Amino acid sequence: MQSPDCFRENIFCAALVTDTVGVDDHGINQNTWAGMQEAKASELADRIEYIESVDARDYEKNIAYFANQGFDMIVTVNAGLRDETLHAADLYPDSVSVGMNQPQTETRPNLIPITFPEDQMGFAAGIFAATLTKTGVVGAVCETSGIDSMWRYCEGFRAGVAFVNPTIKALVFYRDDGDSENLFVDEAWGFETANKAIRRGADVIFAAGAVTAQGALRAASELNIPAIGAERDQAAALAESGSSVVTSIFGQASIEVQEVMRLLRVGNVSGPRSGQIGNVPFHGNFPESLQDAANLLFLSMRTGEIKTNVASKKP
User: Fold this and answer.
1) CB within 8 Å of 80: residues ≥ 6 apart
2) The dihedral sign for the CA sequence 120, 121, 123, 124
3) What does the pLDDT look like over 233-267, one tens digit per residue?
4) Which residues of 149-219 form beta strands (DSSP E)?
5) What does pTM read for this prediction?
6) Sequence-ordered list of residues with C-beta below 8 angstroms from that of 168, at least 6 positions apart, any chain
7) Which of 78, 122, 222, 262 is deepest in the core (most CB within 10 A)?
8) Contact (Cβ atoms closer than 8 angstroms) between residue 235 and residue 242
9) Would you say 63 and 69 are in contact if contact means Cβ atoms under 8 Å apart?
């Protein structure tokens, strides 16, 4: 039986379908749910729920569960649900499908893809690294450059370092010769590559690319080298293994999901959005001015005052 709440006038229902990482991922799933909770507290939403997907085969049925109850807005998270989100927009025209961190090549009138600019996140990491280095050498460890988002992360990093000081050496490593079966899960390569960068003088390490990147952050932490994470709060996710992660840069899904709700409440289905980015407050003995400078940087990139000049795709 369908719940009547979502069909009543002025009752706005929003749901979250996570990927298989779950809602407590210290990343975009958790951040999206936090935004939905804030939306309910501020009366932007009347009813919110989530389902954690156990297996990728659950994605379609989990979306259908909420669509069949008449939920106004169904948010799915990360690229693994991209196809299911697009399909859901066709199957359930009365619900708006919101794909968080999901680039789409097709459009639908009830589809809102939200992406976050990896070049800007990498650029910020490069600026932070260039600010923190004492040796004048910094390192970046990324998954294969054959994936546009990874290329934008690390080329953004390179550009951010040069923006601060072009004489600082940026060692940038991509996992371009690795086994495709280990894509995003090659922790050993990440660990070994970060150690290589450190042996070559890098005293700050940036890493992007899920578990592959976490290997690099673990290596930095073992040697007490400051590290910068991406995609989630890597210090929280890695716990003791990420003891030297000073900050992580991420897409602010909590802000974006609330903004989409505001638009939908007034009948505006806005189409693709480029989301805001931010960072986890710096861990350790850092002056408050460093976080203030970071906040100003994010604003300046968002307004276009500062540009990364990184292309969207590898040439």
Assistant:
1) 19, 20, 56, 59
2) positive
3) 999 999 999 999 999 999 999 999 999 999 998 88
4) 169-174, 205-208
5) 0.92
6) 130, 133, 136, 137, 138, 161, 162
7) 122
8) yes
9) no
> Domain-by-domain residue ranges, the chain?
5-116+252-277, 118-250+285-303
> 245 with 173: CB under 8 angstroms?
no
Contact 231, 213 (CB under 8 A): yes
Query: In 10 A of CB 176, how many CB atoms?
Result: 11
Rounded distance between C-alpha atoms, residue 41 and residue 306, angstroms:
35
C-alpha span between 7 and 24 (Å, rounded) = 30
Tokens of 196: 């290589």
Contacts of residue 306, defined as CB under 8 A and 6 or more positions apart, other chains included, come to 163, 297, 300
Residue type, 203: D
269: Cα separation from own chain's centroid: 23
Angle of CA points 298, 151, 233, to nearest 5°: 50
Q: Which CATH number fits domain 118-250+285-303: 3.40.50.2300, 3.40.50.300, 1.10.3720.10, 3.20.20.30?
A: 3.40.50.2300
In CATH terms, are 5-116+252-277 and 118-250+285-303 the same topology? yes
Rounded Cα gap, residues 315 and 313, in angstroms: 6
State in words which class domain 5-116+252-277 has. Answer: alpha beta
pLDDT, tens digit, 9 for 90 and up, residues 211-227: 999 999 999 999 999 99
Order of strands, edge to edge, in the sheet holding 111-115?
A: 47-51, 13-17, 73-77, 96-100, 111-115, 273-274
User: Per-residue pLDDT averaged across 178-197, rounded?
Assistant: 95
Q: Which two tokens stand for residue 195?
A: 């150690």
Of 246, 145, 239, 249, the residue nearest 205 (C-alpha): 246
